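Dear H.,

Thanks for agreeing to be a second pair of eyes. The structure we're designing against is below in token form, covering all 173 positions.
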């Protein structure tokens, strides 16, 4: 089923609650309110568009946007959107439900297979592109937050070829 979304002020909005409901149940988007549809993150919208599950239209012009145009629009607000999208896509293809992160560099919350909607996220994912310097303090802060929330921190590193390697971060006891 293909859903219609509207790009408005840098976000993709699913206006119909009827269209939004199956996506929400699958772990895509955030409900706007009781009568309205949902709001998709940039990487969710790109993923659903690439999977032919979403059509996106520009709110101002009514023009349908293809993947490259939508990516360009998102890149203006978030230069790291391509890295986040590729990591998001990889995790989704592996069967995980991936939700927006908690800030401080934590890009995603990752639910173990089959637990979305029943249990809290088990992992937090910190996304980085190979060659991008990361201050150790940022990783320490992300790890501290993950441990305080009783979650495991995963660092997802995308290399120059678009391949992703996952590292688990922890502390020495």
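And this is the sequence the design step returned. I haven't edited it by hand at all.
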């Amino acid at each position: 089923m293909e859903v219609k979304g509207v790009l408005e002020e840098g976000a993709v909005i699913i206006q119909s609650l009827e269209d939004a409901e199956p996506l929400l149940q699958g772990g895509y988007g955030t409900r706007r309110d009781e009568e309205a549809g949902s709001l998709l993150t940039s990487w969710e919208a790109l993923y659903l568009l690439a999977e032919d599950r979403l059509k996106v239209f520009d709110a101002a012009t009514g023009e349908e946007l293809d993947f490259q145009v939508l990516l360009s629009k998102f890149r203006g607000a978030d230069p790291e959107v391509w890295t986040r999208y590729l990591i998001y896509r990889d995790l989704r293809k592996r069967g995980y439900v991936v939700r927006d992160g908690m800030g401080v560099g934590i890009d995603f919350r990752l639910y173990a297979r089959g637990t979305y909607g029943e249990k809290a996220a088990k992992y937090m994912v910190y996304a980085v592109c190979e060659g991008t310097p990361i201050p150790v303090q940022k990783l320490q802060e992300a790890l501290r937050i993950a441990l305080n929330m009783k979650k495991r921190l995963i660092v997802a590193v995308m290399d120059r070829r678009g391949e992703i390697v996952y590292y688990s971060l922890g502390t020495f006891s």
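Two observations from my side: The longest helix spans residues 81-93. Residues 106 and 126 are 5 Å apart (CA to CA).

Warmly,
E.
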